[in-house]
Amino acid sequence: MNSRKEQFIKEIVDTHMRQFVDGLETRYRAEVDDPLGVINAKKNNAFISQLGEEFMFYSAFVRSFDSSFGKVLENMGNAIAKISFTVKGRIESYLLPQQTQHIDFLMTAYEKRDAKPSTRDYQNFNCLVPSNVTSFLTSHETDNYFYDEEKGCHYLIELKAGGDLDNKKAKSEKIALLNEFFILKNALSNNETVKIFFATAYNKFGEGSPWHQERVQTFFAEDELLIGKDYWNFVCNDPEGYRVVFDQYKISSEYMKNALERIKLLYFHSISDKKAL
Fold first, then answer.
1. Which residues have CB under 8 Å from 226's CB, separation 6+?
2. Which pTM was predicted?
3. Would you say residue 272 has pLDDT above 70?
4. Among 165, 164, 173, 159, which Cα is nearest to 110's?
5. What is the C-alpha to C-alpha distance for residues 8 and 80, in angstroms, rounded to an integer?
6. What is the SS3 assignment for 193-205?
7. 6-21 burial, b if ≥16 CB within 10 A, otherwise e?
8. What is the pLDDT of residue 101?
9. Cα 229 to the chain's mean position, in Å?
10. pLDDT beyond 80 at 250
11. Cα 258 from chain centre
């Protein structure tokens, strides 16, 4: 990776972490005297508050942190992707009944284990297009749509920043991605390629370890997966991407550690003051 690109990526990681931490600290400071604030509300759960102030604080904080931090990682990935790709959003075209039926057919075959998922299952599917497609027009919002102009390749990604996909949702996520695939494919010329991926921001089994969520792999082929390191290498468009991102994250995460200590002191002092009253 050239030094200029590496510096761009590091600046993006640092900026996103700074903004995230500033927003988080501002929010918790504003809620410190609000009885319905995220952390204060936890005190109303007698079963949790009985376990101590620190446990009560972290049980409330971590749950809120996880949901918001996932969005930060997604936004960070999209910002990094803009260095190498055109990042797009809404897809508008048409979706034919034959394509919807084919998706249903594939899902049934995968569920019954009559077939293993393969990109050939949909990449090679063709059907007659009616002269008037007005009644089949549709659109789809997507948060992770990247276009490589040099290769003429479009990438649709379903990212689970939390590193996990609920097993019950694996089928619906694949259906949604295939819907997006056909809608986009119908809008493009034949010489352009569309690829779909399921991605996670980290490997829940540990980077370098095999990733095996069986229910997900029932519906997704191996080459439709971008897990942890592979996702960051992809958005950076470089095999050193993950290393660069994480090296900077280790530095920028100090903002979060310091802010957490300040937030903790703020709430513990508030709790102590109220007890003194």
1. 157, 197, 198, 199, 200, 234
2. 0.89
3. no
4. 173
5. 8
6. EEEEEEEECCCCC
7. bebbbebbeebbeebb
8. 97
9. 13
10. yes
11. 26
Look-up: residue for tokens 């050239």?
Answer: 2
* Residue 156 backbone zone (phi > 0: left; psi -120 to 50: alpha; other: beta): beta
- Token pair of 75 as six digits: 């936004």
pLDDT in tens, 52-108: 878 888 888 887 788 789 899 999 999 999 999 999 988 999 999 999 999 999 999
Can you read off the two tokens belonging to residue 134?
């007005």
Q: Give the ranges where 112-240 is alpha helix by DSSP (H).
A: 120-123, 170-187, 214-219, 229-236
CA 13/CA 73 separation, integer angstroms: 9
Closest CA to 77 of 231, 204, 248, 203: 231
Comparing 146 with 160, which gets the higher pLDDT? 146
What HEC string does 45-59 produce?
CHHHHCCCHHHHHHH
Averaged pLDDT for residues 136-148 = 92
Q: Yes or no: say if 133 and 172 are a contact pair by the CB < 8 Å rule.
A: no
What digits encode the pLDDT tens for the residues 92-131? 999 999 999 999 999 999 999 999 999 999 998 999 999 9
Q: Is 157 helix (H, G, I), strand (E, B) or coil?
A: strand
Q: Which tokens sit at 99?
A: 């394509």
Q: What Å distances lie between residue 46 and 55, 58, 112, 271, CA to CA?
A: 12, 15, 46, 15
Q: Which residues of 233-254 are buried (b: 16+ CB within 10 A; e: fewer)?
A: bbbbbbeebbbbbeebbeebee
